[in-house]
Amino acid sequence: MTAIPLRPPRRLVDLTLDGEPVRAPEDSTLLDACRAAGKDVPTLCQGDTLTPKNACRVCVVEVEGARTLAPACSRRVEQGMEVRTDTERARHSRKVVLELLASSTDLSTTPRAAEWIEEYGAEPDRFGADAARVDEEPKVDNDLYVRDYDKCILCYKCVDACGDQWQNTFAIAVAGRGFDARISTEHDAPLTDSACVYCGNCIEVCPTGALSFKTEFDMRAAGAWDESAQTETTTVCAYCGVGCNLTLHVQDNEIVKVTSPHDNPVTHGNLCIKGRFGYQHVQNHAQNRD
Q1: Which residue intervals define the domain 4Fe-4S Mo/W bis-MGD-type in the entry (predicted)?
Q2: Which of helix, strand or coil describes residue 118?
Q3: Residues whose CB falls within 8 Å of the CB of residue 191, separated by 6 or more in sequence, listed in order
Q4: Is the dihedral of CA 115, 97, 95, 130 positive or negative?
Q5: Which of 61, 109, 124, 197 lies in disulfide reach of 102, CB 3.0 to 4.6 Å?
């Protein structure tokens, strides 16, 4: 039996959060420290399995002595650091960012977006009807998942998951610059003609619903999608011997989508096409048995 090597203990640093002294591991971020202290700092682009990109800027906090607001998702804690998470400056910045995002993209399926817009008094409508929007029809070019870029906030999480941080397929990237920037396949080819292997790991990390299971997309369109009525059961994928964990989301006794626990040491939230989309045989078997 192979012995698991012991890691050196993580050094703790002392800092102040909103006037309260806290201790946090030296390799943690301000967002980690805030969450450990029970402080609700909003964020959209942060992912627990990806390197922070500082794209959405919703999580900014004020650090004593710093000229600019710091993104809590990537700024590391330091000894003696004094941090304020709910200052007028930080709240105003979050308000403007939420207004800009909500005026240009559809945040209707973004968890907690409506709550934060209300909390920070954001008014997306103040930019008027001429605010720049994608106004693009959802791309439904396969039977597994849908790309609805009207909901995309360009957080780059899907690009990172498809690229060198996990899948190394590089089927998608950011095309264009400025207002023309968008997520695209090479030469804007249909997904079926791209390098995509349909692992669905991009769906796993998407924070806004711009990428979703075809089943979820169709059920939302029909008004049948109801997360409150869904149950989640974690099991082990039966397709091979790797041992990937699957979380089955079930509504009305049918599997509607499959995810994977992010804290699982085997998958870290990632799956292959069989694990994420190959669940239909379960329902076919159940229907035949009935």
Answers
A1: 230-286
A2: helix
A3: 139, 141, 142, 147, 171, 185
A4: negative
A5: 124
Do residues 104 and 153 make contact, with C-beta atoms less than 8 angstroms apart? no
Arithmetic mean of pLDDT, 173-180:
88
Q: Determine the CATH number of domain 145-282.
A: 2.20.25.90
Helices within 123-242 (DSSP H only): 157-162, 201-205, 214-221
Q: Where are the beta strands (DSSP E) in 135-188?
A: 145-147, 172-175, 182-185
- Please state whether 47 falls in left (phi above 0), alpha (psi between -120 and 50) or beta: beta
Tokens 């709550």, located at residue: 115
Domain 10-132, CATH number (from 3.40.50.300, 3.10.20.740, 2.30.130.10, 3.40.50.11270): 3.10.20.740
Which two structure tokens, joined as six digits, stand for 246? Answer: 């699957």
For 106: left if phi > 0, alpha if psi spans -120 to 50, otherwise beta; the answer is: beta
Q: Specify the pTM.
A: 0.88
User: The tokens of 50 are what?
Assistant: 């990806």
Pairing state between β 20-25 and 60-63: unpaired
- State the Cα–Cα distance between residues 159 and 178, nearest whole angstrom: 17
Residue ranges per structural domain of the chain = 10-132, 145-282
Confidence tier at 127 by pLDDT (50, 70, 90): confident
